[in-house]
Specification:
By secondary structure, the protein is an alpha+beta fold. It folds into 3 domains: 3-104, Rossmann fold, CATH 3.40.50.20; 112-130 and 198-324, 2-Layer Sandwich (D-amino Acid Aminotransferase, Chain A, domain 1); 134-195, 2-Layer Sandwich (Dna Ligase, domain 1). 31% of the residues lie in helices and 28% in strands. It contains 10 helices and 17 strands. It has helices at residues 16-29, 91-99, 108-115, 117-125, 145-152, 178-186, 231-235, 249-266, 300-307, 312-324, and strands spanning 3-10, 35-43, 46-50, 56-58, 65-68, 71-74, 77-80, 134-138, 156-160, 170-172, 191-196, 201-209, 214-216, 220-224, 239-242, 272-278, 284-290. Strands 12, 13, 14, 15, 16 and 17 form a 6-stranded antiparallel β-sheet that branches. It has a 5-stranded mixed β-sheet with strand order 4-3-2-1-7. Strands 8-11-9-10 form a 4-stranded antiparallel β-sheet. The longest helix has 18 residues, at 249-266. The radius of gyration is 20 Å and the shape is globular. The model is unreliable at 229-236 (pLDDT under 50).
Length: 326
C-alpha cells in the first residue's frame, strides 16, 4: 500500500517563492509508483493542501490531516521544504514531533541552531571548523560603525542572522554603507551578523546519512558574475555552477571530510548542504549550513546527485524509508 507524503512548502519569510519551487522539484523527484503525494502550503495561519485540480483544502492542525471527498487523509511522512520560518528553524519540526509524524530534515535543536548563523558558527568553531570573524547584532543595540570597521574590516558582509541566505544580504565596502545594510538585514530577521570578507573559491557540498549508509555528494564550484552569490545569481541564472568543482583532490577531500564532521556535530538528519570558501592556499572556511537545501530542478543537490551517478528518486526513497521503513 502506498504511503502518503506531505511536501510542506511556503513559509512566512521572503523565501516562500523559493520554497514553492522546491516543492515542485520534490513533487517530480519522489516516485509516484511508491508514494501518494500532496503539496501542503503553510503561510501564517493558513494551512492548506493544493490539489492538482486547483482545489485548496484546509489542513486540520490538530492532527495534520485533511478531508478529501468525504475521506480523511492522514500523512505518513512530511518532507519539509520551507526555506525560512517556520520550517527551517525547528518550529515545524517540534509540531511534527508532538504529533508523531516522521519528517525529512534535522530535528528541533539542530534546525534552531543552524537557522541562526552566528551561534551556529561559534558552536561549530568549537569542533575545529574554520569560520570568519563576525559580530552579532540585535535590535536596539547601539552601533558604532567605526568600531565595526576596526574589528571586522572592509569589505564585509552584513546579513540577517536568523533568516535565509537569499534576501537582506549586502556586501559593504565603505563605512557609510553599514547602517543602510543593517536596516536592510533587520527587515528580514530579528538579528544581524556582520562578517569579515572571505576571498577564494566558493564551493558547496551536500550529503545525507541513513541507518545503513552515508552518501557525500560531489562538490559544486560556484562562480558568480555578481558581487556575491545573491538571489539573482541563485535563481536567475547569473552564475556558473560546476560539478565536480575544479579544485585539487586534497581540497575536495578536506571539504567532504569537513561536511561529514559538521553533520556529526549537529547530529543532522536528511540531506544537508554546507557552503564554503576555500582561500587561495587551500584553507577551507565555513560560509553556512543549510539543513533544508533548495530542491528546485536546477538546485545544487539535484546537480550533485546527477554528478554522483545516482537517481534522485532513489535518494528521496532513502530519506523517506529511513524514517518510516519500506
Amino acid at each position: 500500500m502506498k504511503k502518503t507524503i506531505a511536501i510542506v512548502a511556503g513559509g512566512d519569510s521572503s523565501e516562500w517563492q523559493v520554497s514553492m519551487r522546491s516543492a515542485a522539484g520534490l513533487n517530480s523527484f519522489i516516485d509516484d509508483a511508491k508514494y501518494t503525494k500532496y503539496v501542503v502550503t503553510i503561510v501564517g495561519k493558513k494551512w492548506q493542501v493544493e490539489l492538482v485540480d486547483g482545489r485548496k483544502l484546509p489542513i486540520d492542525k490538530n492532527d495534520f490531516s485533511f478531508m478529501l471527498d468525504g475521506r480523511k487523509i492522514a500523512f505518513d511522512f512530511a518532507y519539509i521544504t520551507i526555506h525560512g520560518t517556520p520550517g527551517e528553524n525547528g518550529i515545524l519540526q517540534g509540531y511534527f514531533r508532538l504529533l508523531g509524524i516522521p519528517f525529512s530534515c534535522c530535528d528541533v535543536w539542530a534546525a534552531a541552531l543552524t537557522f541562526n548563523k552566528f551561534p551556529c558558527n561559534q558552536y561549530l568553531k568549537s569542533f575545529g571548523i574554520n569560520v570568519a570573524k563576525s559580530v552579532w547584532l540585535h535590535r536596539g543595540d547601539v552601533i558604532d560603525t567605526a568600531k565595526l570597521v576596526a574589528e571586522i574590516g572592509l569589505p564585509c558582509f552584513i546579513k540577517p542572522c536568523d533568516g535565509g541566505s537569499s534576501f537582506g544580504v549586502t556586501k559593504v565596502k565603505a563605512e557609510e554603507q553599514i547602517m543602510p545594510a543593517i536596516e536592510k538585514a533587520f527587515a528580514e530577521g530579528s538579528e544581524v551578523m556582520v562578517e569579515a570578507l572571505m576571498t577564494g573559491t566558493e564551493v558547496t557540498c551536500g550529503m545525507y546519512r541513513t541507518k545503513t549508509k552515508e552518501v557525500v555528494f560531489p562538490i559544486t564550484e560556484v562562480v558568480t558574475h555578481n558581487e556575491f552569490f545573491d538571489y539573482d545569481a541563485k535563481y536567475n541564472g547569473q552564475v556558473e555552477e560546476i560539478t565536480p568543482a575544479r579544485i585539487p583532490d586534497a581540497w575536495a577531500a578536506e571539504v567532504q571530510a569537513t561536511t561529514r564532521k559538521i553533520y556529526s556535530a549537529l547530529n543532522a538528519k536528511g540531506i544537508i548542504r554546507v557552503d564554503y570558501i576555500i582561500e587561495p592556499f587551500g584553507n577551507v572556511k565555513l560560509l553556512e549550513v543549510n539543513t533544508i537545501p533548495g530542491m528546485t530542478a536546477t538546485s545544487f543537490i539535484p546537480q550533485q546527485v546527477r554528478a554522483a551517478g545516482l537517481d534522485i528518486r532513489d535518494v528521496m526513497d532513502d530519506i523517506i524509508t529511513n524514517e518510516i521503513g519500506d
